[in-house]
Amino acid sequence: MNTLHQRIMDEGRNLGRGILKVDSFLNHQVDPQLIDQCGRELARRFERVEATKVLTAEISGIAPAVATAFHMSVPVVYARRTRPVTMPEEVLLTVAPSHTRGLPVELIISPEFLGRNERVLVIDDFLATGQTILGLARLVNTAGATLVGVGAVIEKIFEGGRTALASLNVPVESLAIVTDMSDGKIVLA
Amino acid sequence: MNTLHQRIMDEGRNLGRGILKVDSFLNHQVDPQLIDQCGRELARRFERVEATKVLTAEISGIAPAVATAFHMSVPVVYARRTRPVTMPEEVLLTVAPSHTRGLPVELIISPEFLGRNERVLVIDDFLATGQTILGLARLVNTAGATLVGVGAVIEKIFEGGRTALASLNVPVESLAIVTDMSDGKIVLA
Predict the structure, then answer these.
(1) A181 near A14, Cβ under 8 Å?
(2) What digits encode the pLDDT tens for the residues B46-78?
(3) What is the CA A110 to chain-centroid distance, rounded?
(4) In chain A, how many domains are there?
(5) How confident is the model over B130-176, as pLDDT tens digits?
(6) Residue B103's pLDDT is what?
(7) Could you say which of B63, B66, B77 has the minimum Cβ distance to residue A28?
(8) Residue A172 CB neighbours (<10 A)
(9) Radius of gyration, CA atoms only, chain A
(10) Per-residue pLDDT at A98
(11) What are the beta bridge partners of residue A77?
(12) Best CA proximity match to B129, nearest among B108, B101, B149, B109
Protein backbone atom coordinates (compact mmCIF):
# COMPACT_ATOMS: atom_id res chain seq x y z
CA MET A 1 0.00 0.00 0.00
CA ASN A 2 2.78 2.40 -0.91
CA THR A 3 0.32 4.48 -2.93
CA LEU A 4 -1.87 5.04 0.13
CA HIS A 5 1.14 6.01 2.24
CA GLN A 6 2.27 8.42 -0.43
CA ARG A 7 -1.16 10.04 -0.69
CA ILE A 8 -1.34 10.49 3.09
CA MET A 9 2.08 12.15 3.11
CA ASP A 10 1.34 14.30 0.04
CA GLU A 11 -2.27 15.32 0.71
CA GLY A 12 -2.99 14.59 4.37
CA ARG A 13 -3.20 17.58 6.68
CA ASN A 14 -2.78 17.55 10.43
CA LEU A 15 -5.53 19.85 11.72
CA GLY A 16 -4.53 19.41 15.36
CA ARG A 17 -6.29 17.48 18.16
CA GLY A 18 -5.55 14.26 16.29
CA ILE A 19 -7.65 15.21 13.27
CA LEU A 20 -6.15 13.98 10.02
CA LYS A 21 -7.72 15.57 6.97
CA VAL A 22 -7.71 13.18 4.02
CA ASP A 23 -10.72 14.73 2.30
CA SER A 24 -9.08 14.65 -1.11
CA PHE A 25 -9.11 10.86 -1.50
CA LEU A 26 -11.03 9.16 1.33
CA ASN A 27 -13.61 11.25 3.20
CA HIS A 28 -15.32 13.75 0.94
CA GLN A 29 -13.64 13.34 -2.38
CA VAL A 30 -12.91 9.67 -3.03
CA ASP A 31 -10.27 8.32 -5.39
CA PRO A 32 -12.07 5.20 -6.61
CA GLN A 33 -8.93 3.55 -8.00
CA LEU A 34 -7.08 3.98 -4.71
CA ILE A 35 -10.06 2.78 -2.68
CA ASP A 36 -10.40 -0.24 -4.95
CA GLN A 37 -6.75 -1.08 -4.24
CA CYS A 38 -7.39 -0.69 -0.51
CA GLY A 39 -10.40 -3.01 -0.76
CA ARG A 40 -8.39 -5.56 -2.69
CA GLU A 41 -5.64 -5.53 -0.07
CA LEU A 42 -8.07 -5.77 2.87
CA ALA A 43 -9.83 -8.68 1.14
CA ARG A 44 -6.46 -10.38 0.70
CA ARG A 45 -5.50 -9.92 4.34
CA PHE A 46 -8.81 -11.35 5.53
CA GLU A 47 -9.04 -14.13 2.98
CA ARG A 48 -8.75 -16.81 5.67
CA VAL A 49 -11.48 -15.53 8.01
CA GLU A 50 -14.18 -16.65 5.53
CA ALA A 51 -16.44 -13.66 6.06
CA THR A 52 -19.96 -13.89 4.67
CA LYS A 53 -20.68 -10.20 5.15
CA VAL A 54 -18.89 -6.88 5.49
CA LEU A 55 -20.28 -4.37 7.98
CA THR A 56 -19.47 -0.67 8.19
CA ALA A 57 -20.95 2.58 9.46
CA GLU A 58 -22.14 5.43 7.31
CA ILE A 59 -20.73 7.64 5.91
CA SER A 60 -17.02 7.48 5.25
CA GLY A 61 -16.81 3.74 5.81
CA ILE A 62 -19.02 3.01 2.83
CA ALA A 63 -16.52 3.37 -0.03
CA PRO A 64 -13.74 1.19 1.46
CA ALA A 65 -16.26 -1.35 2.78
CA VAL A 66 -17.96 -1.73 -0.61
CA ALA A 67 -14.55 -2.13 -2.27
CA THR A 68 -13.51 -4.80 0.24
CA ALA A 69 -16.83 -6.64 -0.10
CA PHE A 70 -16.50 -6.50 -3.89
CA HIS A 71 -13.16 -8.29 -3.75
CA MET A 72 -14.54 -10.86 -1.28
CA SER A 73 -17.76 -11.32 -3.32
CA VAL A 74 -19.96 -10.85 -0.26
CA PRO A 75 -22.66 -8.27 0.53
CA VAL A 76 -21.92 -5.22 2.66
CA VAL A 77 -24.26 -3.59 5.18
CA TYR A 78 -23.82 -0.05 6.39
CA ALA A 79 -25.20 0.88 9.77
CA ARG A 80 -27.40 3.97 9.56
CA ARG A 81 -27.36 6.88 11.98
CA THR A 82 -31.08 7.47 11.64
CA ARG A 83 -33.78 4.89 10.97
CA PRO A 84 -35.01 5.33 7.38
CA VAL A 85 -38.69 4.76 6.60
CA THR A 86 -37.80 1.57 4.76
CA MET A 87 -36.54 -0.13 7.92
CA PRO A 88 -38.71 -2.42 10.02
CA GLU A 89 -39.92 -1.02 13.35
CA GLU A 90 -37.69 -3.34 15.31
CA VAL A 91 -34.04 -2.75 14.62
CA LEU A 92 -30.64 -3.43 16.10
CA LEU A 93 -29.43 -0.18 17.67
CA THR A 94 -26.47 0.85 19.75
CA VAL A 95 -24.97 4.18 20.72
CA ALA A 96 -21.30 5.00 20.19
CA PRO A 97 -19.43 8.12 21.26
CA SER A 98 -18.22 9.98 18.18
CA HIS A 99 -14.71 11.28 18.25
CA THR A 100 -15.04 13.86 15.49
CA ARG A 101 -18.61 14.92 16.26
CA GLY A 102 -18.48 15.26 20.02
CA LEU A 103 -21.96 13.79 20.47
CA PRO A 104 -22.86 10.11 20.73
CA VAL A 105 -24.25 8.70 17.49
CA GLU A 106 -26.71 5.89 16.95
CA LEU A 107 -25.73 2.90 14.84
CA ILE A 108 -28.78 1.14 13.42
CA ILE A 109 -29.01 -2.09 11.46
CA SER A 110 -32.04 -3.91 10.18
CA PRO A 111 -32.13 -7.46 11.57
CA GLU A 112 -33.12 -8.57 8.05
CA PHE A 113 -29.49 -8.25 6.96
CA LEU A 114 -27.55 -9.55 9.96
CA GLY A 115 -28.50 -13.13 10.72
CA ARG A 116 -27.10 -15.53 13.32
CA ASN A 117 -25.15 -17.53 10.76
CA GLU A 118 -23.22 -14.59 9.39
CA ARG A 119 -19.44 -14.29 9.72
CA VAL A 120 -18.92 -10.54 9.82
CA LEU A 121 -15.88 -8.50 8.86
CA VAL A 122 -16.06 -4.91 10.09
CA ILE A 123 -14.39 -2.35 7.79
CA ASP A 124 -14.08 1.37 8.42
CA ASP A 125 -12.11 4.27 7.02
CA PHE A 126 -10.40 5.10 10.32
CA LEU A 127 -9.43 3.16 13.40
CA ALA A 128 -8.96 5.84 16.06
CA THR A 129 -10.43 5.28 19.54
CA GLY A 130 -12.23 2.20 18.24
CA GLN A 131 -15.60 3.29 19.65
CA THR A 132 -17.52 3.07 16.37
CA ILE A 133 -16.04 -0.35 15.66
CA LEU A 134 -16.87 -1.55 19.18
CA GLY A 135 -20.43 -0.34 18.56
CA LEU A 136 -20.61 -2.35 15.33
CA ALA A 137 -19.19 -5.36 17.18
CA ARG A 138 -21.98 -5.05 19.78
CA LEU A 139 -24.56 -5.11 16.99
CA VAL A 140 -22.95 -8.25 15.53
CA ASN A 141 -23.10 -9.82 18.98
CA THR A 142 -26.72 -8.81 19.55
CA ALA A 143 -27.67 -10.31 16.20
CA GLY A 144 -26.08 -13.59 17.30
CA ALA A 145 -23.63 -13.39 14.38
CA THR A 146 -19.87 -13.93 14.59
CA LEU A 147 -17.32 -11.16 14.28
CA VAL A 148 -14.32 -12.47 12.36
CA GLY A 149 -12.10 -9.42 11.86
CA VAL A 150 -11.70 -5.67 11.84
CA GLY A 151 -10.03 -3.71 9.05
CA ALA A 152 -9.36 -0.01 8.57
CA VAL A 153 -7.77 2.08 5.87
CA ILE A 154 -5.93 4.38 8.28
CA GLU A 155 -5.15 3.72 11.94
CA LYS A 156 -4.17 6.46 14.38
CA ILE A 157 -2.42 4.12 16.74
CA PHE A 158 -1.82 6.75 19.41
CA GLU A 159 -5.58 6.97 20.05
CA GLY A 160 -5.64 3.50 21.54
CA GLY A 161 -8.23 1.82 19.32
CA ARG A 162 -6.16 -1.32 18.83
CA THR A 163 -5.95 -1.81 22.59
CA ALA A 164 -9.68 -1.14 22.96
CA LEU A 165 -10.42 -3.83 20.35
CA ALA A 166 -8.17 -6.47 21.97
CA SER A 167 -11.09 -7.93 23.92
CA LEU A 168 -12.83 -8.82 20.66
CA ASN A 169 -10.20 -11.48 19.98
CA VAL A 170 -10.22 -11.06 16.22
CA PRO A 171 -7.50 -10.04 13.77
CA VAL A 172 -7.21 -6.27 13.33
CA GLU A 173 -5.60 -4.93 10.14
CA SER A 174 -4.99 -1.42 8.93
CA LEU A 175 -3.38 -0.34 5.69
CA ALA A 176 -1.57 2.71 7.02
CA ILE A 177 -0.60 3.35 10.63
CA VAL A 178 -0.10 6.91 11.83
CA THR A 179 2.14 6.80 14.87
CA ASP A 180 2.49 10.46 15.73
CA MET A 181 0.57 13.65 15.01
CA SER A 182 2.09 15.84 17.70
CA ASP A 183 3.46 19.27 16.79
CA GLY A 184 1.79 19.28 13.37
CA LYS A 185 3.61 16.15 12.22
CA ILE A 186 2.17 13.19 10.33
CA VAL A 187 4.41 10.18 10.99
CA LEU A 188 3.61 6.84 9.37
CA ALA A 189 4.87 3.49 10.68
CA MET B 1 -29.25 -4.27 -16.77
CA ASN B 2 -31.51 -7.31 -16.67
CA THR B 3 -29.96 -8.32 -13.35
CA LEU B 4 -31.00 -5.04 -11.74
CA HIS B 5 -34.53 -5.37 -13.10
CA GLN B 6 -34.74 -8.90 -11.77
CA ARG B 7 -33.52 -7.87 -8.32
CA ILE B 8 -36.08 -5.07 -8.15
CA MET B 9 -38.87 -7.47 -9.06
CA ASP B 10 -37.63 -10.22 -6.71
CA GLU B 11 -36.60 -8.16 -3.68
CA GLY B 12 -38.15 -4.72 -4.03
CA ARG B 13 -41.10 -3.93 -1.80
CA ASN B 14 -43.71 -1.29 -2.36
CA LEU B 15 -44.23 0.30 1.05
CA GLY B 16 -46.88 2.71 -0.20
CA ARG B 17 -46.68 6.47 -0.74
CA GLY B 18 -44.19 5.84 -3.55
CA ILE B 19 -41.59 4.32 -1.25
CA LEU B 20 -39.69 1.50 -2.91
CA LYS B 21 -37.70 -0.58 -0.45
CA VAL B 22 -34.55 -1.96 -2.06
CA ASP B 23 -32.59 -2.27 1.17
CA SER B 24 -31.28 -5.70 0.30
CA PHE B 25 -29.02 -4.58 -2.54
CA LEU B 26 -28.86 -0.78 -2.81
CA ASN B 27 -29.73 1.24 0.29
CA HIS B 28 -28.66 -0.50 3.47
CA GLN B 29 -27.24 -3.77 2.33
CA VAL B 30 -25.30 -3.30 -0.90
CA ASP B 31 -24.53 -6.02 -3.44
CA PRO B 32 -21.10 -4.84 -4.58
CA GLN B 33 -21.08 -6.97 -7.74
CA LEU B 34 -24.45 -5.58 -8.84
CA ILE B 35 -23.46 -2.01 -8.01
CA ASP B 36 -20.22 -2.45 -9.93
CA GLN B 37 -22.26 -3.53 -12.97
CA CYS B 38 -24.50 -0.48 -12.53
CA GLY B 39 -21.44 1.76 -12.35
CA ARG B 40 -19.97 0.18 -15.46
CA GLU B 41 -23.19 0.71 -17.38
CA LEU B 42 -23.60 4.33 -16.23
CA ALA B 43 -19.98 5.00 -17.20
CA ARG B 44 -20.68 3.52 -20.64
CA ARG B 45 -23.79 5.61 -21.16
CA PHE B 46 -21.95 8.81 -20.21
CA GLU B 47 -18.72 8.02 -22.01
CA ARG B 48 -19.18 10.90 -24.44
CA VAL B 49 -19.84 13.65 -21.89
CA GLU B 50 -16.16 13.60 -20.84
CA ALA B 51 -16.82 14.11 -17.15
CA THR B 52 -13.86 15.00 -14.96
CA LYS B 53 -15.72 14.38 -11.71
CA VAL B 54 -18.69 12.48 -10.35
CA LEU B 55 -20.84 14.17 -7.73
CA THR B 56 -23.38 12.56 -5.44
CA ALA B 57 -25.09 13.11 -2.09
CA GLU B 58 -24.53 11.05 1.02
CA ILE B 59 -25.62 8.43 1.90
CA SER B 60 -27.15 6.00 -0.54
CA GLY B 61 -25.66 7.69 -3.57
CA ILE B 62 -22.12 6.87 -2.51
CA ALA B 63 -21.88 3.23 -3.61
CA PRO B 64 -23.23 3.69 -7.18
CA ALA B 65 -21.34 6.97 -7.60
CA VAL B 66 -18.01 5.43 -6.55
CA ALA B 67 -18.63 2.49 -8.92
CA THR B 68 -19.41 4.85 -11.81
CA ALA B 69 -16.38 7.02 -11.07
CA PHE B 70 -14.20 3.91 -10.88
CA HIS B 71 -15.21 2.90 -14.41
CA MET B 72 -14.66 6.47 -15.65
CA SER B 73 -11.32 6.79 -13.81
CA VAL B 74 -12.29 10.12 -12.27
CA PRO B 75 -12.67 11.20 -8.63
CA VAL B 76 -16.05 11.31 -6.92
CA VAL B 77 -17.23 13.87 -4.38
CA TYR B 78 -20.14 13.26 -2.04
CA ALA B 79 -22.02 16.24 -0.69
CA ARG B 80 -22.29 16.09 3.10
CA ARG B 81 -25.41 16.84 5.12
CA THR B 82 -23.42 18.34 7.97
CA ARG B 83 -20.13 20.20 7.77
CA PRO B 84 -17.37 17.96 9.16
CA VAL B 85 -14.53 19.50 11.17
CA THR B 86 -12.15 18.81 8.29
CA MET B 87 -13.98 21.20 5.93
CA PRO B 88 -12.92 24.79 5.42
CA GLU B 89 -15.14 27.42 7.02
CA GLU B 90 -16.39 28.61 3.67
CA VAL B 91 -18.30 25.93 1.84
CA LEU B 92 -20.78 25.54 -0.98
CA LEU B 93 -24.17 24.88 0.59
CA THR B 94 -27.69 24.50 -0.66
CA VAL B 95 -30.92 23.23 0.85
CA ALA B 96 -33.05 20.57 -0.82
CA PRO B 97 -36.42 19.24 0.30
CA SER B 98 -36.08 15.55 1.17
CA HIS B 99 -38.78 13.28 -0.08
CA THR B 100 -38.15 10.40 2.32
CA ARG B 101 -37.23 12.49 5.35
CA GLY B 102 -39.91 15.16 5.24
CA LEU B 103 -37.50 17.89 6.30
CA PRO B 104 -35.22 19.93 4.05
CA VAL B 105 -31.62 18.71 4.11
CA GLU B 106 -28.44 20.65 3.57
CA LEU B 107 -26.04 19.62 0.81
CA ILE B 108 -22.52 20.82 1.52
CA ILE B 109 -19.41 20.63 -0.66
CA SER B 110 -15.95 21.91 0.00
CA PRO B 111 -14.91 24.34 -2.76
CA GLU B 112 -11.52 22.57 -2.70
CA PHE B 113 -13.01 19.73 -4.72
CA LEU B 114 -15.31 21.45 -7.17
CA GLY B 115 -13.40 23.85 -9.36
CA ARG B 116 -14.56 25.98 -12.28
CA ASN B 117 -12.96 23.74 -14.87
CA GLU B 118 -14.70 20.58 -13.77
CA ARG B 119 -17.18 18.73 -15.98
CA VAL B 120 -19.50 17.15 -13.46
CA LEU B 121 -21.67 14.05 -13.78
CA VAL B 122 -24.25 13.76 -11.00
CA ILE B 123 -25.05 10.18 -9.94
CA ASP B 124 -27.61 9.13 -7.34
CA ASP B 125 -29.31 5.92 -6.27
CA PHE B 126 -32.82 7.25 -7.00
CA LEU B 127 -34.31 9.79 -9.33
CA ALA B 128 -37.69 10.59 -7.78
CA THR B 129 -38.82 14.22 -7.52
CA GLY B 130 -35.36 15.31 -8.63
CA GLN B 131 -34.97 17.78 -5.74
CA THR B 132 -31.68 16.37 -4.44
CA ILE B 133 -30.24 16.31 -7.94
CA LEU B 134 -31.41 19.89 -8.59
CA GLY B 135 -29.66 20.84 -5.33
CA LEU B 136 -26.43 19.22 -6.52
CA ALA B 137 -26.82 21.00 -9.88
CA ARG B 138 -27.11 24.33 -8.04
CA LEU B 139 -23.84 23.59 -6.23
CA VAL B 140 -22.14 22.80 -9.56
CA ASN B 141 -23.44 26.08 -10.91
CA THR B 142 -22.33 28.06 -7.86
CA ALA B 143 -18.86 26.56 -8.16
CA GLY B 144 -18.70 27.76 -11.76
CA ALA B 145 -18.31 24.17 -12.96
CA THR B 146 -20.24 22.53 -15.81
CA LEU B 147 -22.93 19.93 -15.29
CA VAL B 148 -22.67 17.36 -18.08
CA GLY B 149 -25.20 14.67 -17.11
CA VAL B 150 -27.40 13.07 -14.50
CA GLY B 151 -27.56 9.32 -13.86
CA ALA B 152 -29.58 7.25 -11.43
CA VAL B 153 -29.84 3.57 -10.66
CA ILE B 154 -33.63 3.59 -10.25
CA GLU B 155 -36.06 6.20 -11.53
CA LYS B 156 -39.62 6.54 -10.25
CA ILE B 157 -40.87 8.28 -13.33
CA PHE B 158 -44.33 9.02 -11.89
CA GLU B 159 -42.75 11.42 -9.38
CA GLY B 160 -41.81 13.88 -12.10
CA GLY B 161 -38.07 14.15 -11.58
CA ARG B 162 -37.25 13.86 -15.26
CA THR B 163 -39.51 16.80 -16.04
CA ALA B 164 -38.03 18.80 -13.16
CA LEU B 165 -34.53 18.20 -14.55
CA ALA B 166 -35.41 19.21 -18.12
CA SER B 167 -34.30 22.79 -17.53
CA LEU B 168 -30.76 21.55 -16.85
CA ASN B 169 -30.38 20.62 -20.53
CA VAL B 170 -28.16 17.61 -19.91
CA PRO B 171 -28.66 13.92 -20.69
CA VAL B 172 -30.52 12.03 -17.95
CA GLU B 173 -30.08 8.26 -17.73
CA SER B 174 -31.50 5.72 -15.33
CA LEU B 175 -30.89 1.99 -15.31
CA ALA B 176 -34.36 0.94 -14.23
CA ILE B 177 -37.55 2.94 -14.64
CA VAL B 178 -40.48 2.28 -12.34
CA THR B 179 -43.62 3.45 -14.08
CA ASP B 180 -46.30 2.56 -11.55
CA MET B 181 -46.44 1.85 -7.84
CA SER B 182 -50.17 2.31 -7.33
CA ASP B 183 -52.17 -0.40 -5.51
CA GLY B 184 -49.05 -2.13 -4.17
CA LYS B 185 -47.66 -2.80 -7.65
CA ILE B 186 -44.09 -2.39 -8.86
CA VAL B 187 -44.17 -1.96 -12.64
CA LEU B 188 -40.93 -1.54 -14.58
CA ALA B 189 -40.71 0.01 -18.04
Answers:
(1) yes
(2) 999 999 999 999 999 999 999 999 999 999 999
(3) 19
(4) 1
(5) 999 999 999 999 999 999 999 999 999 999 999 999 999 999 999 99
(6) 82
(7) B77
(8) 18
(9) 16
(10) 78
(11) A55, B29
(12) B101
Which residues, 6 or more positions from A51, have their beta carbon under 8 angstroms from its beta carbon? A72, A74, A119, A120, A121, A148, A149
Q: Quote the minimal CA–CA distance from A162 to chain B in Å.
A: 24
SS (H, E, C) B141-152: HHCCCEEEEEEE
Give the separation between CA A24 and CA A8, rounded to whole angstroms: 10
CB pairs A-B closer than 8 Å: 123
* Euclidean distance between CA atoms B27 and B78, whole angstroms: 16
The phi and psi torsions of A23 (rounded to 5 degrees) equal -65, -15
What is the domain extent for residue B120? 2-188
Decide: A114 and A78 in contact? Cβ < 8 Å. no
Rounded to an integer, the average pLDDT of A147-159 is 98
Residue A49 confidence (pLDDT): 98
The residues, ordered by sequence, that sit 6+ positions from A163 with a Cβ below 8 Å of its Cβ are A130
Residues from chain A that touch B84, judged by Cβ atoms under 8 A, are 27-28, 100
Q: Which residues of B touch A113 (CB under 8 A)?
A: 23-24, 28-29
For A130, the 3-state DSSP assignment is: coil
| Amino acid code (one letter) for B70 | F
Going by C-alpha positions, the residue among B189, B65, B82, B181 that lies closest to residue B133 is B65
**Contact predicate A124/A133, CB 8 Å:** yes
> What's the longest Cα–Cα distance across chain B?
48
E runs forming strands in A11-91: 13-14, 20-21, 29-30, 53-57, 76-79
CATH number reported for the structural domain that contains residue B161 in this entry: 3.40.50.2020
At B99 the pLDDT is 66
What are the tens digits of pLDDT across the range B99-141? 666 689 999 999 999 999 999 999 999 999 999 999 999 999 9
The DSSP letter of residue A18 is T
Query: Helix A32-45 vs helix B62-72: angle between axes, to the nearest 10 degrees?
Result: 110
Which chain B residues are Cβ-neighbours of A27 within 8 angstroms? 84, 86
Chain B: give the shortest CA distance to residue A83, in Å: 10
